[in-house]
């Protein structure tokens, strides 16, 4: 297995792993943000993490699912770092300033509380597929590989979760 060779420090194996996965990871990251610098940073951090901790891969599911989990986490870390950097002295850049409408501000606490309660009420297996497909942006097939369940089961659980949430939110 390629990853086992990476664990042993095989640079050629790492290069091959990068060649096989960097393009699709980059495309997936671009779906989550239009900030090309952030995409590049997350991709580099992903493969740096893989190089340093390939031995932590537990062998469950596909390597691609493990890589995407790391990439998604690195993207979130990058967004958090950038949001802290925005706090600067001087005139704010107009693209960085967003003001929610009064209606949005009034609805957020109510909506967030209802959504949080609805999500908390979901069965763990339904929350798990929503995490993979909605938050992580995986396709049904990718989520199936990552979760180790059939693709049809992922689709069924997503449908059930959405129906349950729709009922709870109405």
TrEMBL record:
<comment type="similarity">
    <text>Belongs to the sigma-70 factor family. ECF subfamily.</text>
</comment>
<feature type="domain" description="RNA polymerase sigma factor 70 region 4 type 2">
    <location>
        <begin position="114"/>
        <end position="164"/>
    </location>
</feature>
<protein>
    <submittedName>
        <fullName>RNA polymerase, sigma subunit, ECF family</fullName>
    </submittedName>
</protein>
<dbReference type="Pfam" id="PF04542">
    <property type="entry name" value="Sigma70_r2"/>
</dbReference>
<dbReference type="InterPro" id="IPR013249">
    <property type="entry name" value="RNA_pol_sigma70_r4_t2"/>
</dbReference>
<dbReference type="GO" id="GO:0016987">
    <property type="term" value="F:sigma factor activity"/>
</dbReference>
<keyword id="KW-0805">Transcription regulation</keyword>
<dbReference type="InterPro" id="IPR014284">
    <property type="entry name" value="RNA_pol_sigma-70_dom"/>
</dbReference>
<keyword id="KW-0731">Sigma factor</keyword>
<dbReference type="InterPro" id="IPR013325">
    <property type="entry name" value="RNA_pol_sigma_r2"/>
</dbReference>
<dbReference type="InterPro" id="IPR007627">
    <property type="entry name" value="RNA_pol_sigma70_r2"/>
</dbReference>
<dbReference type="GO" id="GO:0003677">
    <property type="term" value="F:DNA binding"/>
</dbReference>
<keyword id="KW-0804">Transcription</keyword>
<dbReference type="GO" id="GO:0006352">
    <property type="term" value="P:DNA-templated transcription initiation"/>
</dbReference>
<dbReference type="InterPro" id="IPR013324">
    <property type="entry name" value="RNA_pol_sigma_r3/r4-like"/>
</dbReference>
<dbReference type="Pfam" id="PF08281">
    <property type="entry name" value="Sigma70_r4_2"/>
</dbReference>
<dbReference type="InterPro" id="IPR036388">
    <property type="entry name" value="WH-like_DNA-bd_sf"/>
</dbReference>
<dbReference type="InterPro" id="IPR039425">
    <property type="entry name" value="RNA_pol_sigma-70-like"/>
</dbReference>
<feature type="domain" description="RNA polymerase sigma-70 region 2">
    <location>
        <begin position="17"/>
        <end position="85"/>
    </location>
</feature>
């Amino acid at each position: 297995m390629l990853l086992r060779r990476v664990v042993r420090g095989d640079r050629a194996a790492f290069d091959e792993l990068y060649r096989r996965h960097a393009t699709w990871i980059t495309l997936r990251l671009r779906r989550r943000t239009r900030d090309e610098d952030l995409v590049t940073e997350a991709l580099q951090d992903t493969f740096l993490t893989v190089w340093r901790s390939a031995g932590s891969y537990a062998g469950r599911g596909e390597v691609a699912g493990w890589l995407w989990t790391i990439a998604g986490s690195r993207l979130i870390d990058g967004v958090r770092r950038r949001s802290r950097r925005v706090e600067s002295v001087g005139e704010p850049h107009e693209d960085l300033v967003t003001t929610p409408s009064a209606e949005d501000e009034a609805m957020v606490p109510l909506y967030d509380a209802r959504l949080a309660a609805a999500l908390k009420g979901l069965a763990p297996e339904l929350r798990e597929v929503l995490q993979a497909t909605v938050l992580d942006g995986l396709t049904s097939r990718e989520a199936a590989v990552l979760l180790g369940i059939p693709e049809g089961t992922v689709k069924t659980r997503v449908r059930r979760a959405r129906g349950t949430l729709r009922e709870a939110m109405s």
